Amino acid sequence: MFSGIAEFHDWYAGRRRAHGYRVDRIPLDALDGWRTDPDSGNLVHRTGRFFTVEGLDVADSGREVSAWQQPIIVQPEQGVLGILVKEFGGVPHFLLQVKMEPGNVNGLQLSPTVQATRSNFTGAHGGRSVPYLEYFTAPRSGRVLSDVLQSEQASWFLAKRNRNMIVQVDGDVPVLEDFCWLDFEQIAQLLREPNLVNMDTRTVLAGAASWRDRDADLVADTFRGALARSWAPGNVALHDTTHLLSWFTEAKNRCTLARQLVPLTKVEGWGRRDGALVHDRDQHFAVIGVSVETDSREVARWHQPMFEPRSQGVIAFLVRRIGGVLHVLMQARTETGGFDGVEMAPTVQCQPDSYRGLPEERRPRFLSEVLEAPPERIRFDRVHSEEGGRFYHAQNRYLLVEVGDGFPLRVPDDYAWITLRQLTDFVRYGNHLNVEARSLLTFAGFYKEDDE
After folding, report:
1. Which of 48, 105, 214, 245 stands 20 to 30 A from 127 (CA)?
2. Which residues form the dTDP-4-dehydro-6-deoxy-alpha-D-glucopyranose 2,3-dehydratase domain (predicted)?
């Protein structure tokens, strides 16, 4: 435990000095342990485990662009993202680790207590076992506070889900050298620092919001207190939950998305160049190869393919006070690789560069309202990394932008005003809020209105 945030940074700097790691780009054809299937062109690991890179054909998406083809990661196995929580002196603390991922822009980021794929924790890589995994697999000690199968980035994964868990323990927990206990206030401060709290930690922390319906509990009360900074007394919503569930179901019913896997060699608009698989207009992302060496992972060295975005994304909530209560403008978004086709997503979620040259009607709705917002309307604005195990230097600009009373309450059919309290109810169930929305919900939960 740390007495203050400065002490954490001293510890974090020490862990960075203690570890060595190296990540080099290499041609896809030079990947050791991976092969290009001669029939399909798909990238496949020699064990048949981990994941594959295949082609996806998308039609009738209902999005700004109706049809396209792209590479996609196929990883049907479910991993575990788990955080241990324990009270010290009556204050809940979370056990996080500094973890090296090959795609991290800064090497080490704060990760959950356990962040592991099934291939990893079943030993497919032949490396060391995953610390603390026993707290998240049955039979386990401790009290489960949150346990939900949640989606991953559906633009780059096909139907990928991970088990998001929070487990409270009372007994002694040995703390390994790359792990630390942090309380809510310390995490709140660290969330304001770019590229420090990783995506997996943010999505698991969003599950803490669902505790508020439990009987009086110190951990739940603490998180509820954090969220209360953005809630008004009474919490009267524009729409009740039954209406919102009907709106969400109707959006799923309207969904016309048709998708099918195709050989990677047949994906139109993509081709091999300079050892990578790239888009013909050099947009969206590239599939690259990397060579990794590290002294802090279960395996010391390996090769793998990764997805590298060509530009920074924008992920934003438009927020507005309705009857004194903060509401978020959510969209029911067709997700290319989504397990259930449609999920609740932020108001804006895109790579603006992917829409360059397109007319306004084919650009994402409300993008201009976000990018052109005056500084006094921006309540949160930070750049954070996405998952570094599969994505190379993927960063998004996360924003909370408050609009005035003149902004319309009547919005397009795929959008709805939802309170933060209602969003925390939905996060208790899988395939309701997408991973980008869960990250923003975590930022909103720790947001203080008097922050600069």
Report:
1. 105
2. 6-206, 242-442
Q: Which structural domain, as residue segments, surrounds residue 335?
A: 241-257+311-445
DSSP state of 163: E
In this structure, are residues 186 and 6 in contact, taking their beta carbons and an 8 Å threshold?
A: no
Residue 25 lies in a domain: no
Write out the two tokens for 435. Answer: 């991973």
How many independent structural domains does the chain possess? 1
The single residue listed with the structure tokens 């998406």 is 61
| 283 within some domain | no
DSSP state of 364: P
pTM beyond 0.70, yes or no: yes
* pLDDT tens per residue, range 139-184: 888 999 999 999 999 999 999 999 999 999 999 999 999 999 999 9
Decide if 383 is inside a domain.
yes
Angle at 400 between CA 412 and CA 223, to 5 degrees: 110
Say whether pLDDT at 85 is over 80.
yes
In a domain, 268, yes or no: no
The CATH number given to whatever domain includes residue 427 is: 3.90.79.40
Half-sphere exposure of 383 (CA within 13 A, CB side): 9
